Amino acid sequence: MSARLLSRWVIVFGIAVAAIFPLILPSWATLVTLILAKGIVVLGIIILLQAGQVSFGHAMFYGVGAYTVAFWERYVGAADLLLFLLLGPLIAMAFGLLIGLFVVRYREIFFGMLNLAFSMVMWSLLEKLYHYTNGADGIRVARPTLAGIAFTPEAFQYVLLYLTLGLVLVVSYAVQRYLDSPLGHMLRAIKSNETRLEYLGISARKVLLIGYVASAFLGGLGGVLVAIAQQIATPEFAYWTKSGEFVFIAILGGTANAFGAFAGAAVFETVRFFASAQLANAWQLILGVVLIVIIMFAPNGLIGLLNRRKPSAEVRT
What we know:
- By secondary structure, the chain is mainly α.
- The protein has 13 helices and two strands.
- The protein has a two-stranded antiparallel ribbon.
- It is globular.
């Protein structure tokens, strides 16, 4: 069996597990939803990694999506889930455009640290403006309707799960097509030889800005889904450790394929779930050991294991 065919079967198996497993164990429905939602955010990190840029502040867009839901419900009123899924990513994308116009001028550590700085500014505002944000306590998010239909808590967890799974398929396909497109190749050229790209008359800043705005959109979408699944939005959504978590998951899953984001998120959340239950104060130690093992034996991440039989020229990152 070729590596490409094996990868497809693994992806189909993963989708089937995500769809069927929560029906057998209902208590896992929310956990699988969180895995899928965080995988969407990590897709944004993977887009930026194609250009060799690491964002240590991507959680700010995740927070924008979450607080779009929270602020709307607090200051406007109850709304439909479809509205949140449209509004959250679009507002995050607008933030991404404004911030991206500035940060895409910089590369490598400066790019990463500037993103971190913007993220911490947002986190501080959410913490200090208590009158509007409830500070560290956060804002509770009520269960929204879907297309005007209200669901019981038990039914809603499955509605959100399968809606999230559908979104995963759509955005994964879109991201993979984007990475395989000429624009995606130009994004990777920023990492390999940006000067050559400029010689061809292509603005590296514009190419990176498009990728940055797309990654912000995905961050906002994931934030909306997680805030609704957890029914709360807190400043922790925008904290720097959350950004580090997304980078961790991207490295764990691998950046050569869009589905690496979900493989990494599945391992990360599952290990954290069981490790925190057994070793509440040391689950980070277990995660660290897992990452070290992955880097030593699978430097291209979990998805990279499936591509080992590919000729090296086919591996894009």
